[in-house]
User: Fold this.
Amino acid sequence: MTERIVLAYSGGLDTSVAIPWIKERTGRDVIAFAVDVGQAGEDLEQIRQRALDCGAVEAVVLDARDEYADDYLIPALKANALYQRRYPLVSALSRPLIARHLARVARELGANSIAHGCTGMGNDQVRFEAAVAAVAPELESIAPIRDLSLTRDVAIEYAEANKLPIRQSKSSPYSVDQNMWGRAVETGFLEDPWNAPIEDLYEYTQDPTIQRDPTEITIAFEAGVPVAIDGERMSMRQIVEKLNDLAGKHGVGRLDMVEDRLVGIKSREIYEAPAAIALIEAHTQLEDLVLERDVHRYKREVEVEWSNLVYDGLWFGGLKVALDSFIDHTQEKVTGEVRMTLHQGRAVVTGRRSDQSLYDYSLATYDTGNTFNQDAARGFIELHSLPSKIAARRDKPQL
Assistant:
């Protein structure tokens, strides 16, 4: 029986080229495995057929949209996950889900290897292989695009010569990755960070400079999880899909950034993530209302580390799992409503309320009736600054 390899198949250039390339170079049969994580505009049946047309002996597709939303996007939202304070981990969040099912399918079909279409310059090679190593360490990982140093122009020529059914061409060389949490675009003229992005790059968002009336929404959260929009209860997946539509119409969530890749290089990326950016902003501001100061401060530090770990492909790593426990504990009181205005590329919170609020009007007001004991402030400042005062006596600072 011919040995088999299960390939994580996206339907794009690299994974389409990988199918015949693996067959030619190794003699193994390729089973394509595609996962639906909410790739707007992509039909999984068409992707399945494309894999067969490219030479796969079998193509397996899985609808994992609800699993992705519940088991990956909710933890990311609880962590307010933004790599370099901006990028909502669009691709990084889907990779551990895909890798886990990739390993499962390989075991079920008797394959001893998995493959992916990542290059040696990107982050996803690490994410796939580290995740597979964590859940199925006996499986071998193969990366034909990376291991053969197959550049994008050569891959396009190979696809055209072999009449592979792909959309990329020399006149449209962008690399696109997308799921319900957002969309990433790179390569082509974008590789020069001075070149401004053009409107044709975007699909999830409309031009934010076009004049439209603002849209006001109210998002309800329970224990850190969004559960309703304007009083209508929905699943996490439905909320993300709804906000991609509502916020996308106002151009919310467009990002143009140079990011530090795990492999040590800088990369220019264009992202659009309307639901992710709107939800993270709403969730963050509800936390401002309900988390006590020290927990609030420390969680913001944890969020950075959590985002770095997920970006670096360590979803199943011990530290990330431990941080999940801390984050889940902080979410117990994150219940309430956030009012938000979507307009001209921005998602602006205009109100927040919660039965768990730590905001005390009688303490915060500057008007008559204030209950804050201002007499206590003098002694507090004296003790708070005492270490600095003692050190200054010793060091005699020059003014």
About this structure: Residues 4-65+82-173 form a domain with the Rossmann fold fold (CATH 3.40.50.620). The radius of gyration is 25 Å. The chain has a mean pLDDT of 92. The first strand starts at residue 4 and ends at 8.
